[in-house]
Design goal:
156 residues, alpha+beta, YbaK protein
Length: 156
């Protein structure tokens, strides 16, 4: 179970976190509402291809990835959304669309949108569509070592 791997990692690094089980939900904003988490703290993990190599883009749930901004921030020639077939084997046991934002657990670099750095807490899927983890953004940054950049646009 992917949440066990994630929780073990957090426990080994002495991170305080809250695990929240919720009814099945797929959209990040829907998950936030179901789990009673502030929408601005709910992060979504998007798997992208930067110059052909997979990476994670982590951004607020109510935003979309601007691929041009991400490519520029990453110094990549191109940025594209990755197809599920490309990454599902990298996240064994994770439900598609519920990957946690710790790319270091899966050998992938992480880019976090600067808007997520403004709040004290971050919440994200824990590998399933029925559980999320909430923790201090500072702990996420310390453990995931993401590159911070502006690459999102508010969804209308």
């Amino acid at each position: 179970m992917p949440v066990t791997k994630l929780k073990d990692f957090l426990d080994q690094n002495r991170v305080k976190y809250v695990s929240v089980r919720h009814s099945t939900a797929y959209a990040s904003q829907e998950i936030a509402a179901s789990a009673h988490v502030k929408g601005r703290n709910m992060a979504k993990t998007v798997v992208v291809r930067l110059s052909g190599k997979l990476a994670l883009a982590v951004l607020p749930a109510k935003y979309n990835v601007d691929l041009e901004l991400l490519a520029k921030a990453a110094g990549a020639g191109a940025a594209e959304l990755a197809a599920e077939e490309e990454f599902e084997k990298i996240f064994p046991g994770c439900e598609t669309g519920a990957m946690p934002p710790f790319g270091n657990l899966y050998g992938l670099p992480v880019y976090v949108d600067e808007t997520l750095t403004r709040d004290q807490a971050i919440a994200f899927n824990a590998g399933s569509h029925t559980e999320l983890i909430q923790l201090a953004y500072a702990d996420f940054a310390r453990l995931a070592s993401p590159r911070v950049a502006h690459f999102s646009v508010l969804r209308h």
